[in-house]
Amino acid sequence: MSYKFTGNFTQQESLPEESIEAAIAVMRHGRLHRYNLADGEQGETALLEQEFAAYTGAKYCVAVASGGYALASALRASGAQAGDAVLTNAFTLAPVPGAIANAGCTPIFVEVTHNLVMDLADLKVKIASSRARYLMLSHMRGHLVDMDALMAICDGAGVVVIEDCAHTMGAFWDGVASGRHGVAGCYSTQTFKHLNSGEGGLLITDDAELAARAIMLSGSYMLFERNGAGPEKEVFDQIKLETPNCSGRMDNLRAAILRPQLRALDAQCAAWNERYKRVESGLQNATGIKVIERPEKEAYVMSSFQFLCPELSDAQMIDVQKRTGNRGVELKWFGADSPVGFTSRHDSWTYAEAQNLPQTDRVLAGLFDMRLPLTFTLEDCDMLAAIIREEVGAVYQAG
Questions:
Q1: Which of 14, 40, 38, 6 is nearest to 25 (CA)?
Q2: Which pLDDT belongs to residue 2?
Q3: What is the pLDDT of residue 213?
Q4: How far apart are the C-alpha atoms of 105 and 110, rounded to whole Å?
Q5: What is the residue range of 344's domain?
Q6: Mapped to the 3 state alphabet, what secondary structure does the chain carry?
Q7: Which of 230, 263, 296 is the last residue of a domain?
Q8: What is the model's pLDDT at position 1?
Q9: Burial category of 388 from C-beta neighbours within 10 Å (exposed 0-12, middle 13-18, buried 19 and up)
């Protein structure tokens, strides 16, 4: 071991000065609650909703407290009832099945392929066997499935699609923004996502009634006309009293922090992809490593990196993780028996019925995941790839 990486995998970039100034302005006037407005004032949250709707091309946008809250709200607002079966990826993070449970529904997991996307053949099987009429599609870790094929399957079966875009803000499938294929797209602005307000979420849709219900669910009281990108007042007439207030609004402070970041999002996405491509290049054709194939129609945004070691045993995967860790490289392994930090898998979520997912289990047993914060330089990324390549190769050769 001749060199060691010294970067911090959880240190994000500092907020832009414009965000800091906007946050201070909100703190000075004290109107943090999104519906506490001065005469003639739209408010930071309403303006963010307008700007994010315009960015994605959606008719409506609702700013909420978290990405998970957005998912649960979208599910409820689209008509799902307690006890309904909801399909979702077997490879995702805990907030996705958590949102399904939050809506009182039952998660049904669909197998994942070796390219880390939903297995469409298994999706067809699970639609038929479960008779589910909702799919919460997780674009886990920024990997987009063939959205044309998926939507053809779901539209043909009458399955409503809600997209979890926590990892794909700024990404596209065949020129269509992530979040614009299903009835609703849900995004996160948690610190490790593409916009950073600590916590926060955004829900977009072209469906006026869904948007109205999501606004009421978020806790608008009868102030819904103050939302920046909501439907007309008449849409609320039938639903405003029958939709519960679940108090999940975004506040003006977080919105103020986010608006300048949104204006810089495309440049930030390009910077993440530069780093991703440097690591990808460094791991191509490496002994024991399979780099994830990216389809031509996918315009991705990758703030993390995933690779497979399909021929290594569990003991060897643990050895790689320890060896790279000793050299300063933090790899998350999805094959561990128990959850670690943010990393868990379908059999960890015991509130959901245990399901047989042999293909997914094989994939996750060989899967490593690594954050790529923008605080890393391109030279850092070259070093990360070199260390991973050396340590996986050493373990592989040792047998």
A1: 38
A2: 78
A3: 98
A4: 16
A5: 265-398
A6: CCCCCCCCCCCCCCCCHHHHHHHHHHHHHCCCCCCCCCCCCCCHHHHHHHHHHHHHCCCEEEEECCHHHHHHHHHHHCCCCCCCEEEEECCCCCHHHHHHHHCCCEEEEECECCCCCECHHHHHHHHHHHCCCEEEEECHHHCCCCHHHHHHHHHHHCCEEEEECCCCCCCEECCEECCCCCCEEEEECCCCCCCCCCCCEEEEECCHHHHHHHHHHHCCCCCHHHCCECCCHHHHCCCCCCCCCCCCECCHHHHHHHHHHHHCHHHHHHHHHHHHHHHHHHHCCCCCCEECCCCCCEECCCCEEEEECCCCCHHHHHHHHHHHHHCCCCCEECCCCCCECCECCHHHCCCCCCCCCHHHHHHHHCEEEEECCCCCCHHHHHHHHHHHHHHHHHHHHHC
A7: 263
A8: 56
A9: buried
What is the C-alpha separation between 319 and 361, in angstroms, rounded? 19
Domain containing residue 342: CATH number: 3.90.1150.10
Structure tokens at 160: 């409503």
Do 230 and 273 sit in the same domain of this protein?
no
Give CA torsion, residues 234, 65, 163, 375, to 10 deg: 140
Tell me which residues of the chain have a pLDDT lower than 50: none
In a domain, 109, yes or no: yes
Q: Are residues 214 and 272 in the same domain?
A: no
Per-residue pLDDT tens digits for 255-279? 999 999 999 999 999 999 999 999 9
Residues 54, 55, 60, 66, CA torsion sign? negative
**CA 164 vs CA 30, 168, 295: distances in Å:** 33, 8, 19
Phi, psi angles (nearest 5°) of residue 318: -65, -40
Give residue 21's pLDDT.
Answer: 98
Query: What residues contact 125, with CB distance under 8 A and at least 6 apart?
Result: none
Q: What is the CA radius of gyration of the chain?
A: 21
